[in-house]
Amino acid sequence: MGARVAGEDATFEGVVPGGGGRRRISGAVWAALAIVYVVWGSTYLGIRVVVETMPPFLSAGARFVVAGVVLGALVAWRYGPSALKVTRAQLGSAALVGLLLLLGGNGLVVLAETSVPSGLTALMIAVVPAWVVVLRRSFGERPGPDAYLGVLLGLAGLAVLTLPGLSGDVRIGGVLTVIVATVLWAVGSFSSSRIPMPANPFAASAYEMVAGGLGCAAVALLRGEQHGFRLEDVSARSWTAFAYLVVFGSLLAFTAYAWLLHSAPLSLVATYAYVNPVVAVLLGALVLDERLSWPIAVGGAVVVAGVCLIVSTERRR
């Protein structure tokens, strides 16, 4: 793991002399985490608005292909065309990760949000760290008791957060779709640090988005989403949300996430799944006038406590 970008060491530093084995988290890692925490929390609302007048997989495919092509052009401009050169194995790995994350993970979330509220979707996505811990344990890693406790604490808080959403009329199919999405996202995140990926994490992100976008487009065509769809029927509200998802959700936040997968411990990166629901619920209250009840306030506090525990565990490792 450990990637150097633009000459700066953005990874966890080595053991600090006299520091008792503690490692300092760099400012770049904290900045990328903040982007993923806040911006991705807002994308659930954006997706919900997009699918009001756009087909789910068709909109997701267009979003990721556009963002991937733009990011690839930016990489070539900033680092030179050679930064986009990859081996066949690296290209295949990037495509696989892109399909797992963006077709299997995000694509299924977009589909689910045609019937599941954005806040509740974000809450269910928070099981990703639990799957990551299971995967790490399956491959012989030992996250440590504090990591397990942090996961349990986070899930307990999310259980409290979920209570207000359970009273609504939510289709079980949509709920199961989100659960499958969380598994595929966890597998994609876990795999990205164990298979040969492009050396430049931004180039890797571009290839992942193009592959994931093409996968979403293929599924859209198989589902027949193009039949009866007309651009003139898309509302200005959906177009605005689509543009936001391309620029902020994909170019900014997904690129930050892909870089973090190269530059920070996976269990630390996965803590975004605890913060995103809090952001999503707050935005639901502010933008959609959803009720902000005491379970949301209490659950949010417990979620943050779980994040702090996992972060402190990684800093001691």
Explain what this protein looks like in three dimensions.
With 317 residues, the chain is mainly α. The protein is 71% helix and 1% strand. The chain is built from twelve helices and two strands; from the N terminus they run E-E-H-H-H-H-H-H-H-H-H-H-H-H. It has helices spanning 27-50, 56-79, 88-112, 118-125, 128-138, 145-162, 172-192, 201-223, 236-263, 266-269, 272-287, 294-316, and strands at 4-5, 8-9. The chain has a two-stranded antiparallel ribbon. Strand 1 and strand 2 form a beta hairpin. The chain is globular, with a radius of gyration of 19 Å. Residues 1-22 have low confidence and may be disordered.
In short:
The protein has helices at residues 27-50, 56-79, 88-112, 118-125, 128-138, 145-162, 172-192, 201-223, 236-263, 266-269, 272-287, 294-316, and strands at residues 4-5, 8-9. The protein is mostly helical.
What's the structural blueprint in terms of helices and strands?
Elements: E1 4-5, E2 8-9, H1 27-50, H2 56-79, H3 88-112, H4 118-125, H5 128-138, H6 145-162, H7 172-192, H8 201-223, H9 236-263, H10 266-269, H11 272-287, H12 294-316
Antiparallel strand pairs: 1-2
Short descriptors:
317 residues, mainly alpha, 71% helix, disordered N terminus
Structural class of the helices, strands and pairings?
A: mainly alpha
How does the overall form come out from the CA principal axes? Answer: globular
Q: Which strand order does the major sheet show?
A: 1-2
Beta content: under 5%
